[in-house]
Amino acid sequence: MHPHLxxxxxxxLLAPIHAFLQCETPDEWIAEARKPERLSVxxxxxxxxEMKAAMSAHSLVRRYCLPKEKRKLLPNLDFYKTLDALPExxxxxxxxxxxxxxxxxFDELAKNGLLVKxxxxxxxxxxxFEQVLEIMxxxxxxxxxxxxxxxxxxxxQHVRTHEPAAIVxxxxxxxxxxxxxxxxxxxxxxxxxxxxSRFYVSLLRxxxxxxxxxxxxAADYSGQNIDERVAFFGAREAELIQAPDEExxxxxxxxxxx
Length: 258
Fold this sequence. Notes:
Blueprint: H1 3-20, H2 27-33, H3 39-65, H4 77-81, H5 103-110, H6 113-138, H7 151-156, H8 165-188, H9 194-207, H10 210-222, H11 227-242, E1 244-245, E2 254-255
Parallel strand pairs: 1-2
Helix pairs in contact: 1-8, 3-6, 8-9, 8-10, 8-11
């Protein structure tokens, strides 16, 4: 694709994301993240982020798409890796995975709008997780234990404890995490080597709609206007992104000493 057309495409993808986020990634974070010696930490944390995104979506499916006594019937994350493209009517689990007496569970799931969006998201996040691991392997970067940043925790502490407010808040938080990821893919791509730059641009194309899916679901579950709550979490997210941070992570704040 011609560079002009590429830039035009990315600008169109990013425009609603920039309008949604209440601040841009600080230049100090970019300056630190682009350093070659930071690449290992950044890729390991990126891999962790992709897996956490899949796990969070899976948790929402378990908690909100099935009655408590039926949750054990939902497959684990490995199931989604080999799941074929989703049929239009949301036949996500494949009837062969359920016994006849549990067919009603499948029918409940097939009607759930949250399930369809979350399973698509889980598939993509797991695929991206594996792509990051492949890139790490070619660069002899070991996938290791890495402490998480306080970003997600700082957002989740504001989740309300009653329903449907709790799921509305969690979905709004999911929207901000996805939007921030896309914004950072775009900000980092010009400063990375060709392989990683192409990879991050491809992720931006793939994940740009995720935050909108989360927002749509949040509005559906709320049944009322969520603008005030979206703005509340937007302000909290911006505070975390602009706050001093001891560690560099994919969603961390301004590196201390910058």
